[in-house]
Amino acid sequence: MGLTKTQIFDERQNELAIIFKVLAHPARIAILQYISSQKACICNDIVEEIGLAQPTISQHLKELKSIDLIIGEIEGKKVCYCINLNKWKEIQTLLNSFFDKTKFNCC
Amino acid sequence: MGLTKTQIFDERQNELAIIFKVLAHPARIAILQYISSQKACICNDIVEEIGLAQPTISQHLKELKSIDLIIGEIEGKKVCYCINLNKWKEIQTLLNSFFDKTKFNCC
DNA sequence: TTTTAATATTGCAATATTACGATAATAAAA
DNA sequence: TTTTATTATCGTAATATTGCAATATTAAAA
């Protein structure tokens, strides 16, 4: 069906899945790595760096923005995209909590 | 197109994306949490716990197995699924490395 | 050997994702 | 004001994912 049955899972499980889903594309990984390594993180530079069409990059940026992982600051005609450090740390902590909380009773 | 252009990204970026993708479903999060909390982690118990049809669970288990996150041990007619602790730790380390390596020069 | 129980696989319908051309929106520059 | 540059949105084609009924496979039990 292609439709995830979110209603049978709890909020935490759905939240984790959404975060993982946003990160589950090499272009979005590459965008994050590029943004984080540059002093100026202009959208157009990202398009040239990654090698996907401008609308495609714009869409990936939108998905990263949807969980506040990046912030876009308008600078005239351009937009400077930056990683949202607070959210970044928050997500890293959340993922570590998921990995750590998982105990291994069996086998 | 629906087809990810993996060839324009490096191996590390693609590997990270695949790991995130496997984790990007609440059912698979729930399966991992359930398996890790049980002494016996029989496939049928997972089906009853999660509330999805048996073939659907079987498919999700297959995806978790695809990156060796879980191991299925055959016990007669039943299969006992367990988390692969070594891979679990390895992936946690890899994700932390990704989060840590990302520096923030801009903004 | 036949039956039963547990799990995997196949096939398919419905929805989601990816990618991009065309175009709109926005703001600086001419 | 018109042009130009930059980014966002829309529409759409192609592929992927999700979920399940039907069925196959496997191994213990009868």
Automatic annotation (TrEMBL), chains A, B:
Keyword Transcription set for record: yes
Alphabetically ordered keywords of this record: DNA-binding, Transcription, Transcription regulation
CDD domains: HTH_ARSR
Pfam family, one: HTH_5
Range of residues in the leader sequence: none
PANTHER family xref list: REGULATORY PROTEIN ARSR, TRANSCRIPTIONAL REGULATOR, ARSR FAMILY
The protein's name in its UniProt record: Winged helix-turn-helix transcriptional regulator
Location of the HTH arsR-type domain: 8-106
InterPro entries for this protein: ArsR-like_HTH, HTH_ArsR_DNA-bd_dom, HTH_MetalResp_TranReg, WH-like_DNA-bd_sf, WH_DNA-bd_sf
This protein's record includes keyword Methyltransferase: no
Gene Ontology terms, MF aspect: DNA binding; DNA-binding transcription factor activity
UniProt source species: Pelagihabitans pacificus
